[in-house]
Amino acid sequence: MTLNGLGIALATPFNEDFSIDYRALERLIDYVIGNGADYLVVLGTTGEAVTLSDEERHRVARFVVEHTAGRVPLVLGMSGNSTSHLVDTIGRTDFSGFSAILSVVPYYNKPSQEGIRCHFEAVAKASPVPVVLYNVPGRTGANMEAATTLRLAADHPDKIIAVKEASGRMGQIREILEKRPASFSVISGDDALTLPLMAMGACGVISVIGNGLPAEFSSVVHLCAQGKFGEAAALDRRLQPFYRQLFAEGNPSGIKCLLSIKGIAKNVLRLPLTPVSASLRADMELSLVDL
Questions:
Q1: Residues ≥6 apart with Cβ < 8 Å to 29
Q2: Do the beta carbons of residue 227 and residue 199 sit within 8 Å?
Q3: 159 an active-site residue?
Q4: What is the mean pLDDT of residues 231-256?
Q5: Is the pLDDT of residue 23 over 80?
Q6: 25: which DSSP letter?
Q7: Catalytic, out of 134, 159, 243, 256
Q8: pLDDT band, very low/low/confident/very high, at 2 (cuts 50, 70, 90)
Q9: Radius of gyration (C-alpha) of the chain in whole angstroms
Q10: Residue from 31, 159, 164, 243 carrying the catalytic annotation
Q11: Torsion from C-alpha of 261, 187, 166, 215, nearest 10 degrees
Q12: pLDDT of 117 strictly over 80
């Protein structure tokens, strides 16, 4: 399979009592699919998966499968910093309806490159569906170097199919793009860098902003895919304030605020995450007027 175009790192809406708001999740799914999303990523960072119980994660995953009803491919976030525990969790997971998993570099432990390689080899062996690697050293504390990504791609071409690169290290990403196997995809993990990365050869993005502005951002991504970078850049410039604002006080705090402004989901997060400040919310409201 290929994961081209706009992937949405789907948020998980909550009610005021912090229970999962399935009606809002239904609205969000329909909203992004109806406005250009090419696939959805469920239970990732933006979905606040680490604050959900095992039972909640299972229920959210099954709900998304059922409500999406095959309209777009689905990717399931599955990560951990204990390899054995993650492998065990994969073995107990229902993957029906999912085309791949997205798995982040183990966090907090700060493993070596050899440790990262061995971890993902174990994940690939355990998973019944293909694996998308996720490199985001700003969150995990460990960078997966280009050589490690390329070795995993070359050694496991049928199981490790892509990397979501959110390191911001353009030289590293360029090396992966230049040396990767033909069947291996590079996906932007940073909304603000999507246009330049697609100009370098990335196949698309797994996006945060796409939750709240799917029509606008899908236009940028799809124009890039057509090689119309000048037109894409004109649209991308209009989104620049949101790239800053959505991450100014953390993700998914920013996108939950934007979704609440647009009436799609409540501005509720589970601790340790909290809503953004009133001043940042006001800035977002002004940016929407200017958009």
A1: 10, 40, 64, 67, 68
A2: no
A3: no
A4: 98
A5: yes
A6: H
A7: 134
A8: confident
A9: 18
A10: 164
A11: -10
A12: yes
